[in-house]
Specification:
Blueprint lengths: L1 H5 L3 H8 L3 H8 L8 H10 L4 H18 L46 E4 L2 E4 L3 H20 L2 E2 L5 E2 L25 H12 L12 H14 L9 H9 L9 H11 L4 H12 L6 E3 L5 E3 L4 E2 H6 L4 H4 L2 H15 L6 H8 L5
C-alpha cells in the first residue's frame, strides 16, 4: 500500500531506503521478510508514512519476523537467502546443516559414428573397434558410479565423501571468493565457517551475512580483515584452529541487564536493534569504517576506548565499553538510528 501510494518504482524507492530494488520488490510482494527492521522503517519513511502507520508497520514486521524463526532445536534455517548489501540478517538460532558442494556431471559425448551407405537410405553405425572401446568405457564408468565416486577434473567429487586432502578452495576455479558470488566455492566457505562454530545459512550465496562471518573469522584468525576469502583466509579456514563459538543471545541480554542497571530494558532493546545480540556482528559503513560486536562500537569509538575489533568481539568487554559511552550523557546518543526505531515501537 505504501509503495503504490508513493507512485515511485522499486529501484528508486530502494535507492532512497538503502536496499536493492529487487529485494524491495520481494518484500512488498510478500515473498520475503526483511531481517532488519531498519530496512522497513527507512522504506516507510521514504513513502511518507505517518507516525500511526510507522507503528502499524513495525507491529506487522514483528509478527512476520517472529513467524519466520525456526522452532527451537530444529537446527534448520528458516530465513530467506541473503540479498542486498544493505540488509542485516537475523542471527539464526542454529547453523544450517552442512550440505555437499554440488558439482555438475561431466559431459562425455561419444564421437559421431561414421555413415555407412546401405541401399537407398543412409544409416549410421559405429566401427567395430570404437564400439568395443565405448563398451569398455561404459563398463568402467558403471563401476565407478556403483562405488559412489566419480573423479572430476576440478579435483572435486560427487557422491561419497571427500578425502582428507580434498580442498575445494584450492582449485583454480575458486580464486579469491568475494561478495556477490553464488557457487560451490561460496558454499565451501560457508561449510568451513559452520565447522568453526559460525552461525550462518549454507546457501552458496556470498551476501551480507556471509560477509559478516568472513570478516569476523578473519579478525579471530589474526589475518587481514578484508571481507574476501584470500589465500591466508583459506589456510586459516582449513587449519581448524579458530573457533567462532560465543555467547548465546540469552546470556548477552542477561549481562546487559547486569551492567546497565540504570536502564536495563532500553539497553537490551538498543543492543537487539544494533546487532540482534550477536557478539560477532560486523557492519560496514559507507566511509569504509566498520562497527563491531554487541553494541556495534565503531572504529573511531574503539580508538577512544583503547579497543580493537578482536576485543570488541568479547561480549563482556563490549557491553562494559557501551556503558562507558552511555555514562557520558546518561543516554543512548551513540545509537541514533536505534533510538529512532524504538520511538516508533508500540508499547506492550
Amino acid at each position: 500500500m505504501l509503495k503504490d501510494r508513493s507512485g515511485r518504482g522499486y529501484d528508486r524507492l530502494g535507492k532512497e531506503a538503502g536496499v536493492s530494488g529487487s529485494s524491495l520488490h520481494r518484500y512488498c510482494s510478500g515473498l520475503g521478510v526483511p531481517a532488519d527492521y531498519r530496512v522497513v522503517h527507512a522504506f516507510a519513511r521514504v513513502c511518507g508514512a505517518s507516525a500511526e502507520e510507522l507503528r502499524e508497520v513495525h507491529r506487522l514486521w514483528a509478527l512476520a519476523d517472529s513467524d519466520r524463526e525456526a522452532p527451537a532445536g530444529s537446527g534448520e534455517e528458516s530465513r530467506e537467502p541473503e540479498s542486498g548489501a544493505h540488509e542485516a540478517p537475523v542471527l539464526p538460532a542454529e547453523a544450517a546443516r552442512p550440505t555437499p558442494v554440488p558439482v555438475p556431471e561431466e559431459d562425455v559425448t561419444p564421437p559421431r559414428p561414421a555413415p555407412v551407405q546401405d541401399g537407398p537410405a543412409r544409416r549410421y553405425r559405429l566401427p567395430d573397434q570404437l564400439s568395443s572401446r565405448w563398451a569398455v568405457l561404459a563398463a568402467v564408468l558403471a563401476v565407478l558410479l556403483v562405488a559412489g565416486f566419480v573423479w572430476l577434473p576440478s579435483g572435486r567429487t560427487t557422491g561419497g565423501s571427500r578425502t582428507a586432502g580434498d580442498k575445494v578452495l584450492d582449485s583454480p576455479a575458486c580464486g579469491t571468493v568475494s561478495m556477490g558470488e553464488h557457487d560451490g566455492c561460496v558454499r565451501e566457505v560457508q561449510l568451513l565457517l559452520v565447522r568453526a562454530k559460525g552461525r550462518l545459512a549454507v546457501d552458496g550465496d556470498f551476501g551480507p551475512e556471509t560477509l559478516r562471518r568472513v570478516t569476523a573469522f578473519q579478525v579471530l584468525a589474526g589475518v587481514t580483515a578484508r571481507g574476501v576469502v584470500d589465500e591466508d583466509t583459506k589456510k586459516a579456514l582449513y587449519s581448524r584452529k579458530v573457533s567462532m563459538a560465543t555467547w548465546s543471545t540469552d546470556r548477552v541480554a542477561q549481562r546487559i541487564r547486569e551492567v546497565f542497571v540504570e536502564d536495563p530494558d532500553t539497553a537490551v532493546a538498543i543492543a537487539r536493534c544494533a546487532s540482534f545480540l550477536d557478539p560477532l556482528y560486523v557492519l560496514p559503513n559507507t566511509n569504509g569504517s566498520r562497527n563491531w560486536g554487541v553494541f556495534q562500537i565503531s572504529d573511531a569509538r574503539l580508538r577512544q576506548l583503547d579497543g580493537t575489533p578482536l576485543r570488541a568481539f568479547d561480549p563482556d568487554w563490549n557491553i562494559k565499553a557501551a556503558h562507558r559511552l552511555w555514562a557520558v550523557r546518561h543516554d543512548f546518543h551513540d545509537w541514533p538510528s536505534c533510538q529512532a526505531a524504538l520511538k516508533n515501537t508500540p508499547k506492550s
